[in-house]
């Protein structure tokens, strides 16, 4: 902007200098013309004075030299008097300059000057001019010549130009100072606006310019500030939308990949990268056929490219990718102008849905299997009785006992299913009371004492005086009856079941330990599944339904507690129940 100001100031000063120089030349010429005209007019009058004096002489031969010498000295002129024959009657310079005298005489002689003619002017040199006038002395005609020097005129010219030069110089200095101030005044808003425009071009939308004028520059500054505010709001809004979109894409839970029409990947999210164990730096701006390892995914992308139709498919990733079940939705990207932009693929992880679906299938199969056995037994023995065994009292008694046992087993299964369904419902609420966990465990041990005695086992309670805790007394009683019953069932005869109570500040931990058959580590996560049995034969013979631990888990979770298991084959199992001392809510 300084260069613009310099150019503007230089242009203005150059124009003003040209105007001032032109004006000075014009004024100089006007002064010169005026002075020359005034001098010529004065000299013509002086010539007429000399003519009057000459015509009063008696003859050309008897000219009063003294008179004309005085006139020449008084008027500061050279006076020459020529007769009609061209002879010189008088010359105030006494013919000292003979050549000049002869040239003057010859020039004037060539120009015929007659009576009545005005004073004639003959500039001989730049500094000397001669004036000639026809005269008559005593009937004789002649010419009187008066020469004047213009050397003083050159001094006057020099003074005029000096005055004009000084005046124009002072005027130029004043104009430069005023011009600089004026240009600064008018270019400063433009400079500020330009700087703000440059900052806006760089992306600094907080830049503003001053609005201290009401003219066009003020309007320019105001317009740029409005533009800057609009750009800042637009960029801020765009950044917010970009952040929201980025956050949505990164946290949508589904994998996303966008591919342009040349087949290059332009956008992915973390979920997609996690699915295929990729890094974003290795993916962006790379061809999808070189990046996506799953063949079925590449085939789906190619199908979307070829058909330009929306496609939905389910695939199963192999063990290398954590055995995920994915539902892939592919769609073409077409702009408003029907321009093909590429495709987008969305990957939904349906592994949990598949797992739940398989669990439902297993549940139906297990329920069907568990119900089928007692019903088959009941139906078979009933048909046997109807076929004639009613008269055999011994067979009747045995068959009815078996039917009763299978009916009890079926009733227990149905009861556990109803109980599990109840505790899994969202509306399930606990009957919260405050009690001593040691008293509850003593009551449970008393109930299970008979079952333990049948196998020659003992149940040992190890505890100090426990602090009271809050919970549903009956539900927790159901938990520990189930855990101790399982410990007895899966332990060797004449073994021991230990129940240990450990108090902490905010929670109480109850350990149920046995020295039974134990289980493999990979089986531990599955023991809480419905109908899962570690030792199916022993569990079935004991009358278990396979739902007890699932019920236990849900009851502990509803109490905001934690249930964990440690076990090794043939070394026993330890169930750990950690319960908070205070319940946050009643349900």
TrEMBL record:
Source organism, top-level taxon: Bacteria
Keywords: ATP-binding, Cell membrane, Kinase, Membrane, Nucleotide-binding, Phosphoprotein, Transferase, Transmembrane, Transmembrane helix, Two-component regulatory system
Domain PAS: 241-289
Residue stretches making up the Histidine kinase domain: 366-583
Membrane topology of the entry: Multi-pass membrane protein
Catalytic activity: ATP + protein L-histidine = ADP + protein N-phospho-L-histidine
EC number: 2.7.13.3
Gene3D superfamilies: 1.10.287.130, 6.10.340.10, Histidine kinase-like ATPase, C-terminal domain, PAS domain
One term under GO cellular component: plasma membrane
Location of the protein in the cell: Cell membrane
GO MF terms held by the record: ATP binding; phosphoprotein phosphatase activity; phosphorelay sensor kinase activity
GO BP of this protein: cellular response to phosphate starvation; regulation of DNA-templated transcription
Presence of keyword DNA-binding: no
Domain (HAMP): residue spans on this chain: 184-236
Main location group: membrane
Membrane spanning residue stretches: 160-179
Keyword Chaperone attributed: no
PANTHER family the record matches: PHOSPHATE REGULON SENSOR PROTEIN PHOR
Name listed for the protein in its UniProt record: histidine kinase
UniProt lineage: Bacteria, Bacillati, Bacillota, Bacilli, Bacillales
């Amino acid at each position: 902007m300084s260069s613009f100001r310099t150019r503007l100031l230089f242009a203005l000063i150059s124009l003003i200098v040209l105007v001032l120089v032109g004006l000075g030349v014009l004024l100089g010429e006007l002064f010169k013309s005026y002075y020359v005209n005034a001098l010529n007019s004065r000299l013509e009058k002086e010539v007429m004075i000399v003519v009057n004096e000459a015509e009063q002489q008696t003859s050309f031969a008897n000219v009063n030299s003294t008179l004309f010498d005085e006139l020449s000295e008084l008027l500061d002129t050279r006076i020459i008097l020529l007769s009609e024959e061209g002879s010189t009657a008088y010359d105030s310079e006494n013919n000292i300059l003979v050549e000049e005298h002869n040239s003057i005489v010859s020039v004037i002689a060539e120009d015929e000057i007659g009576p009545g003619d005005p004073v004639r002017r003959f500039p001989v040199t730049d500094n000397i001019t001669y004036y000639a006038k026809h005269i008559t002395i005593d009937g004789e005609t002649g010419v009187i010549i008066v020469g004047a020097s213009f050397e003083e005129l050159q001094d006057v010219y020099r003074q005029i130009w000096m005055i004009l030069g000084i005046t124009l110089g002072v005027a130029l200095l004043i104009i430069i100072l005023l011009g600089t101030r004026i240009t600064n005044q008018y270019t400063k808003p433009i400079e500020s606006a330009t700087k703000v425009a440059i900052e806006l071009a760089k992306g600094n939308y907080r830049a503003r310019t001053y609005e201290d004028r009401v003219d066009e520059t003020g309007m320019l500054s105001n317009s740029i500030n409005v533009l800057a505010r609009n750009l800042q709001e637009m960029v801020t809004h765009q950044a917010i939308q970009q952040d929201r979109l980025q956050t949505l894409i990164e946290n949508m839970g589904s994998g996303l990949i966008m591919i342009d029409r040349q087949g290059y990947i332009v956008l992915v999210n973390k979920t997609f990268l996690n699915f295929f164990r990729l890094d974003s730096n290795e993916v962006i701006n790379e061809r999808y056929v070189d990046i996506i390892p799953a063949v079925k995914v590449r085939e789906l992308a190619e199908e979307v490219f070829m058909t330009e139709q929306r496609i939905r498919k389910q695939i199963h990733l192999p063990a290398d990718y954590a055995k995920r079940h994915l539902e892939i939705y592919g769609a073409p990207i077409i702009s408003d102008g029907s321009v093909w932009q590429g495709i987008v693929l969305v990957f939904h992880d349906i592994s949990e849905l598949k797992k739940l679906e398989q669990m439902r299938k297993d549940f139906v199969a297990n329920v069907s299997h568990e119900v089928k056995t007692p019903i088959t037994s009941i139906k078979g023995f009933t048909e046997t009785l109807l076929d004639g065994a009613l008269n055999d009292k011994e067979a009747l008694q045995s068959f009815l006992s078996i039917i009763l046992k299978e009916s009890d087993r079926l009733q227990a299964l149905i009861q556990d299913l109803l109980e599990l369904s109840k505790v899994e419902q969202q509306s399930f609420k606990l009957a919260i009371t405050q009690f001593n966990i040691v008293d509850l465990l003593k009551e449970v041990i008393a109930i299970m004492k008979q079952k333990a005695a049948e196998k020659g086992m003992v149940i040992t309670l190890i505890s100090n005086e426990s602090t009271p805790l809050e919970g549903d007394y009956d539900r927790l009683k159901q938990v520990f009856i189930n855990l101790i019953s399982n410990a007895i069932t899966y332990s060797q005869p004449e073994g021991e079941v230990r129940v240990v109570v450990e108090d902490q500040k905010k929670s109480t931990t109850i350990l149920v330990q046995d020295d039974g058959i134990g289980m493999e580590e990979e089986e531990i996560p599955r023991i809480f599944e419905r109908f899962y049995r570690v030792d199916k034969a022993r569990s079935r013979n004991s009358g278990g339904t396979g739902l007890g631990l699932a019920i236990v888990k849900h009851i502990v979770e509803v109490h905001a507690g934690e249930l964990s298991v440690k076990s090794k084959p043939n070394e026993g199992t330890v169930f750990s129940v950690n319960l908070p001392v205070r319940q946050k809510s009643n349900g």
